[in-house]
Amino acid sequence: MENLKLMTLKELIGLLRKETDAKRIDEKREEIARLMPKVRIMFDFDQRNQAHQYDLWLHCIHTVTGLPRDLDDDMIYLGALLHDIGKPDCQTRGRRADDEDMHYYGHPKRSMEIVRDEVIPGLLDQDGFEKEDARRLIYYVEHHDDRMSVDERCVNAYFDKGVSLEEFRNLMHLQVADALAHVQIPIVAQRVEKCRLLSGAYACEVFRKRV
């Protein structure tokens, strides 16, 4: 481990943007952990939920590789890697006695807090990482699991809060990639279909009506 090359943020972003094989990213887990030590809490973490076929770290990697390769914002790829980092702190049993799955209520907020308070401070001295990047990274992580509706009021609620069209579409791409990294049970497949629609022309049409 002492001989591992110290990965830079630029190199990590390049890896996440270009690599389509989750195994190739996983091979770099120790290098990534030297740059962002907090990611270790995801390594080999058993999610213990029927909707998941991967451990937490591999789920996040598959979310990264499920994104389109040509998105303009580097932070969406980093957000995909970190979107569930708060899950280990939130693992709990379901609310029904017959529910054998583990659940993660509130994990988007906890993930955002970890990224904001523990990950980002370690990245601020990296070349090219600016406060605006931090803002978008926090946004993607905090809202990656929002319940969406194919309804203009739902989409406009994001625009009303100052979210740009690009940020909204990127968030929907993240939701699609996240869902595709699950077992495709019906509720997950419905999320894929819904967010895929919201990531495309539909959001553009809603946005154009505002201007």
UniProtKB/TrEMBL annotation:
Protein's name according to its UniProt entry: HD domain-containing protein
Gene3D superfamilies recorded: Hypothetical protein af1432 (1.10.3210.10)
Cross-referenced Pfam families: HD
HD domain segment(s): 70-148
Domain of life of the source: Bacteria
SUPFAM superfamilies: HD-domain/PDEase-like (SSF109604)
